[in-house]
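This section describes the prediction task in plain terms. A model, or a person checking by hand, is given the sequence of a single protein chain and must write out its three-dimensional structure as a string of tokens. No templates, partner chains or ligands are provided. The sample shown here is typical of the held-out split.
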Amino acid sequence: MSRIDQTFAALGQRKALIPFITAGDPSPEMTVPLMHALVASGADILELGVPFSDPMADGPTIQRASERALIKGVSLRSVLNMVAEFRQQNTTTPVVLMGYGNPIEAMGWDVFAQRCDEVGVDGVLTVDFPPEESHDAFAHLQRYNIAPIFLLAPTTTESRIQQVAKLARGYVYYVSLKGVTGAGNLDLSAIADKIPQLRQHISLPIGVGFGIRDAETALAVAKLCDGVVVGSRIVQAIEDSTEANVIANVSALVSGLKQAVEQA
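The expected answer:
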């Protein structure tokens, strides 16, 4: 059983909190301490963004985080090394890499998957790899028991949901709105309508993200799904902090989100 499967099994009826940060933001040296701080504040699974120059699914907040990390020279290899450093102290919390296909293609999927296995990556979510184009790529991941994680959206057709159900491992990430990360106008009733349709085909846990910016919304979303993904709000807190207070600020934010999710 993978770390992701173990985590959801241990949670039982409780809901997972899945925070996202961009690797290398605010600095490469702060990423691993921030990962540990997220866990200490209640994170059940970590999503670690791989900086990319053209993050098409991300809004301005995460775009700026990628830019800050890229300026500091953070690459896919750097991110994998950060996971290896994190694993020196934490061998239980699942880590999911979230990013885009180009850096992985440049490294080569076989090399990438092997390195993920070596450093302790548990899942990979490649935003621009739809299921019909990912069989060969994700075959490398599954060879090392690394979960291919897919996005579903309000516009996803039933046939696409069925495709994802066959390929996905770990959990499925439902994008709660039409738009990029950090967008507003979260429609809880639309999520409530969509989740039952997904569950007709998907037996994996379903995490919901995009547009969750406070504890109240996190609680409302947690009541509808298995895990709550929060990214832009945390990345914004990092941007608004100094390196001296970033861990305290992020920890306070995530602790509040955890308390809300626990109420579900």
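For orientation: Residues 179-183 have pLDDT under 50 and may be disordered.
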